[in-house]
């Protein structure tokens, strides 16, 4: 059944590619990309296609090209393509990428369950969080095309993720599909990296379907994560809690970023001020913890720690906060954008054509003769560029609306 759905999706995407007006001279030619950030995202994905594929064209973990990508890495590629197609839905080359990405995803399909896993779907126990990123990517593609099969697939995976909820432990989604009888307490963990994106995705599903079950899940998951794993001193989020109640206090950009997206979405849906206050708390805490200025005071912008794939979801969180909570969040996105622009201006690209992981130039990978670029990190940077492309379009739209009001 999943293979049939994949074929139908491919036909849908291919069909739109071939559509053209009968009298093209009557319409001005459309730009291939909405702005240069989208074009740069496409260029980075093209570099991935060139340098992170095996001879039989399977995606690989890095530029060594000696091992097929895990689902985690493939999911990073999938969401990068999905974000790009969301901002460039009429670009034929981008739509071809989306078609191919949907087809390749099915190699990871599990048998007899609406889930995906590494090793041709055979990895066990299944990672719930790897599946959460796929839900997000499918919803991005749905936003671009409005195709019901994409939404249905996202719902199926999301409902599988809901099965990881641990009512007996007071709530929270499991990181993996652990066996409670054979898994030690220290390994039986509920992580922010599954709960935060699942709250975000549930809120998105409610926006697209108006099914209140997804809104209930979004609120429930968000409330548990906030009460259990929030760093109250800073406003950011800790990593996970095990079955014995021990909290791992490591903090990553994507955890706080997805909670920021969820807070912004829930504020937009409910208009409850508590969600807005939480969005402000997360954004300010994340900037304080993860951002730094360049060593040179003449360089504008904010530069974020954590690797490129993790931090893209903080950028997404800032974008969602700007979109749903107002202009007061614009400075967060502008700081990220200026940091990225600095790296481009300085030509901080490695020998494979990938932009550096550290946009301030503090780590130059080509100084290491055996350096290989990680595919997941390259995908994170490509997705970040597409997030910036979306922000520029959103900001331009808001500015135009403001001008119309003034006039």
Automatic annotation (TrEMBL):
KW S-adenosyl-L-methionine (keyword) present: no
Domain of life: Bacteria
One BP annotation, GO: carbohydrate metabolic process
InterPro entries: 6-hairpin_glycosidase_sf (IPR008928), Glyco_hydro_76 (IPR005198), MUG_Protein (IPR053169)
Keywords of the record: Signal
Gene3D superfamilies: 1.50.10.20
Signal peptide range in chain numbering: 1-19
Keyword Signal tagged: yes
Protein name, as recorded: AGE family epimerase/isomerase
């Amino acid at each position: 059944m999943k293979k049939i759905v994949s074929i139908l999706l491919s036909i849908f995407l291919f069909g739109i590619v071939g559509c053209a007006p009968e009298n093209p001279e009557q319409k001005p030619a459309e730009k291939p990309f909405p702005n240069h950030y989208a074009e740069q995202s496409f260029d980075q994905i093209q570099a991935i296609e060139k340098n992170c594929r095996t001879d039989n064209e399977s995606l690989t973990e890095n530029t060594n090209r000696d091992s097929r990508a895990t689902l985690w890495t493939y999911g990073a590629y999938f969401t990068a393509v999905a974000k790009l197609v969301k901002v460039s839905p009429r670009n034929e080359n981008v739509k071809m990428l989306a078609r191919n990405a949907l087809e390749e995803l099915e190699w990871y399909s599990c048998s007899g369950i609406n889930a995906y896993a590494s090793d041709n779907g055979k990895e066990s126990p299944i990672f719930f969080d790897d599946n959460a990123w796929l839900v997000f990517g499918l919803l991005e593609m749905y936003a671009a095309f409005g195709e019901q099969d994409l939404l249905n697939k996202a719902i199926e995976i999301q409902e599988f993720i809901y099965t990881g909820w641990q009512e007996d432990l007071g709530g929270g989604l499991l990181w993996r599909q652990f066996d409670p009888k054979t898994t030690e307490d220290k390994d039986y963990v509920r992580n922010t990296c599954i709960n935060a994106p699942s709250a975000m995705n549930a809120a998105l599903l409610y926006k697209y379907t108006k099914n209140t079950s997804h809104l209930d899940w979004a609120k429930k998951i968000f409330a548990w994560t906030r009460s259990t794993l929030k760093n109250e001193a800073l406003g950011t989020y800790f990593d996970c809690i095990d079955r014995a109640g021990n909290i791992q206090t490591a903090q990553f950009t994507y955890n706080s970023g997805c909670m920021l997206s969820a807070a912004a979405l829930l504020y937009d849906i409910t208009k409850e001020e508590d969600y807005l206050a939480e969005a402000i708390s997360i954004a300010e805490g994340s900037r304080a913890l993860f951002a730094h200025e360049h060593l040179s005071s003449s360089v504008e912008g904010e530069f974020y720690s954590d690797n490129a794939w993790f931090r893209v979801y903080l950028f997404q969180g800032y974008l969602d906060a700007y979109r749903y909570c107002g202009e007061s969040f614009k400075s967060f996105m502008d700081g990220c954008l200026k940091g990225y622009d600095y790296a481009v201006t300085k030509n901080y690209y490695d020998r494979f054509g990938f932009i550096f992981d550290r946009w301030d130039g503090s780590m130059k990978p080509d100084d290491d003769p055996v350096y290989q670029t990680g595919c997941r990190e390259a995908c994170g940077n490509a997705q970040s560029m597409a997030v910036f492309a979306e922000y520029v379009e959103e900001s331009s739209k808001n500015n135009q609306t403001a001008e119309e009001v003034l006039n």
